[in-house]
Amino acid sequence: MENKRSQPNVAYMFRHACAFVDCAEACEREPNHIKVRTASHFLADMTNSCLACEIFIKMLLVNKGCLLNKIHGHELYVLWNKYAKVDVGSSTAIRDRVNGIFQSEEDVFSSLLKKVSNYFLVLRYAYERTQPMEIHQHFLRVFREVLRNYCCKEVYKMSWSEYVANPIMDLVDIL
Question: Is residue 59 a part of any domain in this protein?
């Protein structure tokens, strides 16, 4: 049996996922200071967004007592279903928040999460694809932001906007 000490620190996992969000957002803005310009940094944006969501979900699972070495894979839908079994209330709140943003009576969350589930695996090698694929960038970005805000509340007991407004938070995990 693995002891609790060998589990990763959820605050570190949160900040690690946030680093991938930062990369995704930089790609969304495509700043001119990126030295090697391409027509678009869209694929890098989506890949980093997927990785951020994956780490956020794994952080939530670890925070609920799941062992990280028992949490495998990159497919968001599979990881999400594991989390939904562990924390029905929170997973429902997150799903409802995303559905609310899309102002849909239907459960767009579940159907779109299935569609973006393996983006990380597919988009990082997009040049190998021979068939076109549906891209649901708005959903992925919304899911990423809702997850980040919820995870921030779980780890630091404050919203993401409160966290970034508090300069001392950069030092919290270091001290």
Answer: yes
Q: Alpha-carbon distance 147 to 20, whole Å? A: 13
CA distance 136 to 151: 22
CB 22 within 8 A of CB 166: no
pTM: 0.87
**Strand residues in 7-166 grouped as ranges (E):** none
How far is residue 48's CA from residue 16's CA, in Å, rounded to a whole number? 11
Given a contact cutoff of 8 angstroms between Cβ atoms, the answer to whether 158 and 14 are in contact is: no
pLDDT digits (tens, 9 = 90+) for 47-84: 999 999 999 999 999 999 999 888 988 899 999 999 99
Say how many domains are in the chain. 1
* Residue 55, CA atoms < 13 Å, CB-side half-sphere: 22
For the stretch 24-50, pLDDT in tens is 998 887 655 566 655 567 888 889 999
Is the distance from CB of 17 to CB of 107 less than 8 angstroms? no
Its domain, for residue 50, covers 8-172
| Helical segments of 30-136, H only | 42-63, 76-86, 88-101, 108-116, 119-123
